[in-house]
């Protein structure tokens, strides 16, 4: 069939036809029958085909389980419909505390990534492509190591016999408790999440016309004023994107907080895990998980709305 | 000698309290002087020992191909690039080491560099805000300058809602509202279509004449340079080849580069005979020496524009045979083969056109041609 199609195409169009026309009709003839079918498939269908694998994966592995999760969260252990899981969660001050602490850690991680990541992104912007590639690799390197190994590495670094404690002792400072608290979780999370903040920020900074700052300087603005009035507001989209990614990933992260936070710092994903695997109360685990999804999504939507209003459409247009 | 800070304060008070009028030319500001200014970028000397001095109120153009160092020179004047040598002076004050935000220079960039997150009014007001001009006064001045550049009613728009020409005007307004010592224009017209480019540049020249701010334009467009400038500095490879009025630059180029870069030219090799004449292919022709007159017997090159060549049946001049004539609408192009090579003449449309093969003389006024020692 393919051979016939090719022969046909060649015979009809002749040797002087464009390089694409002869061989091009071959594969098409193979699939659809008619040799002249080249280009007859609607453009939107081709586009849809490109997106199809992703759509299928999302539908099967995300949307469908999410519905199952929501459905499960309204059931008792025996399968009867109930609001009990949510009543239990929201009625228990302990769980409300856990939710609050989760959001707090996520917010602090986001702020930490922003404070450390912004200067880094600014530094990267002015470098040559070669240096930038190396810096990007450096930034992404924590993601190349298993999360568990990385977290255990931090256990060593921050531990009572680790280098941080040694340096502090050498300076005559009694090392504070660095492990199994919020600080440890924050350090570990910022380390992993930095790349998710810096990369979108870089994209935003790169889109700023490089003559804007000289223009502002020429009009009498010193360096800091240029930053506050020009660079910072124009990089808001990158900050927004980075903050959203870091916040939601941190709020739902499990391994790093579990290892570095120890028994004292308990975040939402930890309780989802214990309810599902230890207590075997799947509906309650589903309810905790869904509360986290709803609260995180709600906060992010509110946050983006707020930024949109604050900076007007100019930043996002 | 005044210190930098007192000068700043003096400037600030000038720009806030009084609306400057260029009534007395002697009191006008904006005398720029460059003395041996150099810049090395990436190990290469992109600007080598540039000297120039402007008159207050002058429109001076740095003209040259890309990479000739003209934009680098402008950026050193603005302070965006530090000079690696030499002196930059504005009205007698050394600003070589002054950071850009403490110089009083209004710059218009090729990309316009309008702040996309601010309205046109806020863009224009930016410089005034930096100078701590009170809000009411700021509004008044912004309105005034927007009207001056023909953008009244656009104050509330964002830059992306404006056409290229309007953005250009807004950038100009933003640069002018701070009443700068110097107005620096970096290829400001090159992103506009041909018609708009000509119209806008006429407007800019008219505006510049009116407000009398010393202006430095950087361009690679020789026609633009000839049309707008009081004087042109032709640059190549980091040096100024010639600095003169447009007419002199055009009719009496000093170097091969200037001659070739601006329009078409007949370059004829000959020998100086002293007294402002030289001998080309056995004929005595007149040309004006650029700089010191060449010594008798020195090898010279004579530059003659096609427009100034007259074709005569006889008389003094370069003899030759008409090789080709062509009607081009506004001009008639006539190529004559002479002993010194082909000479092209662009005759007026109503000139008497010689026949091909006719023996003729090519002549020109000595003041309309230049000669330079080779």
Q: How many strands in all of chain A?
A: 0
Mean pLDDT of chain A: 82
Strand order of the main beta sheet of chain B, please? 6-7-8-3-9-10
Number of helices, counting only DSSP H or I runs of 4 residues or more of chain B: 9
Region (Disordered) (chain B): 1-28
Domain ABC transporter (chain B): 32-262
Protein name (chain B): ABC-type quaternary amine transporter
Keywords (chain B): ATP-binding, Nucleotide-binding, Transport
From the structure above, extract its key features.
heterodimer; A: 317 residues; mainly alpha; 77% helix; globular; disordered C terminus; B: 374 residues; alpha+beta; Rossmann fold; OB fold (Dihydrolipoamide Acetyltransferase, E2P); 2 domains; six-stranded mixed beta sheet; elongated; ABC_transporter-like_CS (chain B)
Report on this model:
The complex is a heterodimer of chains A (317) and B (374). Chain A is mostly helical and 317 residues long. Chain A contains 15 helices and no strands. The longest helix of chain A is centred in the last third of the chain and has 35 residues. Chain A is globular. The two termini of chain A are 51 Å apart. The N terminus and C terminus of chain A are likely disordered. Chain B has two domains: 245 residues, 3-Layer(aba) Sandwich (Rossmann fold), CATH 3.40.50.300; 110 residues, Nucleic acid-binding proteins (OB fold (Dihydrolipoamide Acetyltransferase, E2P), Beta Barrel), CATH 2.40.50. Chain B is an alpha+beta fold and 374 residues long. In chain B, α4 crosses α5. The N terminus of chain B is likely disordered. In chain B, the strands form four sheets. A six-stranded mixed beta sheet of chain B has the order 6-7-8-3-9-10, sandwiched between helices. A six-stranded mixed beta sheet of chain B has the order 13-12-11-15-21-14, with no helix packed on it. The radius of gyration of chain B is 24 Å and the shape is elongated. Chain B has nine helices and 21 strands. Chain B: Its EC number is 7.6.2.9. Chain B: InterPro entries: AAA+_ATPase, ABC_SmlMolc_Importer, ABC_transporter-like_ATP-bd, ABC_transporter-like_CS, Mo/tungstate-bd_C_term_dom, P-loop_NTPase, Transp-assoc_OB_typ2.
């Amino acid at each position: 069939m393919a051979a016939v199609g090719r022969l046909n195409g060649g015979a009809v169009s002749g040797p002087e036809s464009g390089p694409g026309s002869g061989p091009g009709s071959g594969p098409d003839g193979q699939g659809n029958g008619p040799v002249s079918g080249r280009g007859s498939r609607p453009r939107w269908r081709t586009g849809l085909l490109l997106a199809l694998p992703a759509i299928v994966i999302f539908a099967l592995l995300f949307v469908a389980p999410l519905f199952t999760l929501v459905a499960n969260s309204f059931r008792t252990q025996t399968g009867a419909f109930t609001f009990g899981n949510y009543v239990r969660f929201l009625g228990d001050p302990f769980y409300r505390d856990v939710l609050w602490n989760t959001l707090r850690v996520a917010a602090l991680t986001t702020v930490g990534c922003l404070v450390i990541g912004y200067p880094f992104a600014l530094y990267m912007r002015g470098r040559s492509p070669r240096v930038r590639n190396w810096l990007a690799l450096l930034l992404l390197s924590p993601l190349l190591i298993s999360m568990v190994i990385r977290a255990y590495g931090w256990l060593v670094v921050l531990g009572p016999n680790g280098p941080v404690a040694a340096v502090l002792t050498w300076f005559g400072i009694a090392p504070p408790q660095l492990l199994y608290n919020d600080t440890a979780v924050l350090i570990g999370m910022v380390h992993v999440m930095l790349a998710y903040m810096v990369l979108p920020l870089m994209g935003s900074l790169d889109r700023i016309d490089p003559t804007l700052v000289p223009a502002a300087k020429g009009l009498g603005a010193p360096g800091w004023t240029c930053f506050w009035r020009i660079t910072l507001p124009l990089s808001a989209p990158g900050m927004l994107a980075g903050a959203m990614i870091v916040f939601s990933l941190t709020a739902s992260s499990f391994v790093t907080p579990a290892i570095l936070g120890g028994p004292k710092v308990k975040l939402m994903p930890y309780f989802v895990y214990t309810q599902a695997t230890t207590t075997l109360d799947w509906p309650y685990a589903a309810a905790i998980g869904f509360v986290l999804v709803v609260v995180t999504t709600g906060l992010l939507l509110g946050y983006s709305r707020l930024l949109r209003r604050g900076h007007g459409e100019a930043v996002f247009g | 000698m005044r210190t930098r800070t007192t000068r700043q304060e003096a400037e600030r008070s000038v720009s806030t309290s009084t609306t400057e009028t260029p009534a007395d030319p002697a009191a006008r500001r904006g005398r720029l002087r460059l003395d041996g200014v150099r810049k090395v970028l990436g190990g290469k000397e992109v600007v080598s020992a540039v000297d120039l001095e402007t008159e207050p109120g002058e429109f001076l153009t740095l003209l040259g191909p890309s990479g000739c160092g003209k934009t680098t020179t402008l950026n050193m004047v603005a302070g965006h690039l530090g000079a690696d040598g030499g002196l930059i002076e504005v009205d007698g004050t050394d600003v070589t080491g002054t950071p850009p935000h403490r110089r009083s220079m209004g710059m218009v960039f090729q990309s316009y560099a309008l702040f996309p997150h601010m309205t046109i009014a806020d863009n224009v007001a930016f410089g005034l805000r930096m100078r701590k001009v009170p809000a009411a006064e700021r509004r008044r001045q912004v309105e005034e300058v927007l009207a001056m550049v023909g953008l009244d009613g656009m104050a509330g728009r964002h830059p992306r809602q404006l056409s290229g020409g309007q953005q250009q005007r807004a950038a100009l307004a933003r640069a002018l509202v701070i009443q700068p010592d110097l107005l620096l224009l970096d290829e400001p017209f090159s992103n506009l279509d041909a018609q708009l480019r000509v119209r806008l540049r006429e407007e800019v020249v008219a505006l510049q004449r009116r407000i009398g701010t010393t202006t430095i334009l950087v361009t690679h467009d020789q026609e633009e340079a000839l049309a707008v400038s009081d004087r042109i500095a032709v640059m190549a490879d980091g040096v100024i080849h010639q600095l003169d009025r447009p007419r002199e630059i055009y009719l009496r180029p000093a170097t091969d580069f200037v001659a070739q870069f601006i329009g078409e030219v007949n370059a004829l090799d000959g020998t100086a005979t002293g007294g402002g004449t030289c001998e080309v292919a056995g004929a005595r022709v007149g040309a004006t020496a650029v700089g010191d007159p060449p010594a008798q017997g020195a090898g010279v090159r004579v530059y003659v524009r096609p427009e100034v060549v007259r074709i005569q049946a006889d008389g003094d001049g370069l003899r030759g045979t008409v090789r080709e004539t062509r009607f081009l609408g506004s001009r008639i192009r006539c190529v004559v083969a002479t002993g010194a090579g082909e000479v092209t003449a662009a005759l007026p449309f109503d000139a008497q056109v010689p026949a091909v093969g006719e023996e003729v003389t090519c002549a020109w006024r000595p003041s309309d041609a230049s000669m330079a020692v080779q």
